[in-house]
Amino acid sequence: MRNHPVRGEKMSNAGPSSKPRVRSLLPELLHWLEIVVASIAIVFVVIGTVSLILGISSFWAELGQEGIQQTFQRILSDILLLVVGIELAILLVRRTPESLVEVMFFVIARKMLLETKAFYELLLGIAALAMLFAIRKYLTLRRLDTPCSGAPEKG
User: Fold this and answer.
1) What CA–CA distance (Å, rounded) separates 62 from 112?
2) Which of 56, 58, 110, 144 pairs as cysteine with 80 (C-beta 3.0–4.6 A)?
3) Is 12 inside any structural domain?
């Protein structure tokens, strides 16, 4: 009887079927974790929407204090942030390249509309949006080229 492994052998306390079980359980666990995170994002979007609706009553007071441009920019920022939250939740649930492109559209648009100070930032945003449009066009064409699994083949 030997208590140590011979060169080339590995000592293992777990049974031979434990690794495949863990490997099959991990993706399922991560999928449910993504759903939990998406649910949390949706809850915060709902809270933010309610807060935005309730904040409309103070819109006229802020308009007099800050001016229309700052008030509009703050409201637009809040709305676009809520849209990004919704798209992020969709991305976490669907996990498709198209969903990722949609999230990036809104993130870049929000950045360009609200935080762009220099001209080169605007040009970079336009270039990024153009690339996203090209990527979306490529993904759309690729999806049209692949036949549906349920469709009968023509012959």
Assistant:
1) 24
2) 110
3) no
pLDDT at res. 140: 76
CA distance 13 to 100: 42
DSSP, res 17: T
**DSSP 8-state class, residue 7:** T
pTM of the model: 0.66
What is the distance between the alpha carbons of residues 94 and 109, in angstroms, rounded to a whole number?
A: 22
User: What's the domain count of the chain?
Assistant: 1
Domain that holds residue 60: 24-145
18 domain residue, yes or no: no
Tokens of 92: 């976490």
- Confirm whether 38 is domain-assigned: yes
Arithmetic mean of pLDDT over the chain = 80
| Cα(103)–Cα(127) distance, integer angstroms | 16
Distance CA 146, CA 108 (A): 30
| Spatial contact of 63 and 71, defined as CB atoms under 8 Å apart | yes
- Domain assignment present for 154: no
Comparing 7-16, 75-84, 111-120, the range with the smallest average pLDDT is 7-16
According to the model, what pLDDT value does residue 155 have?
43
CA angle 19, 35, 142 (to 5 degrees): 90
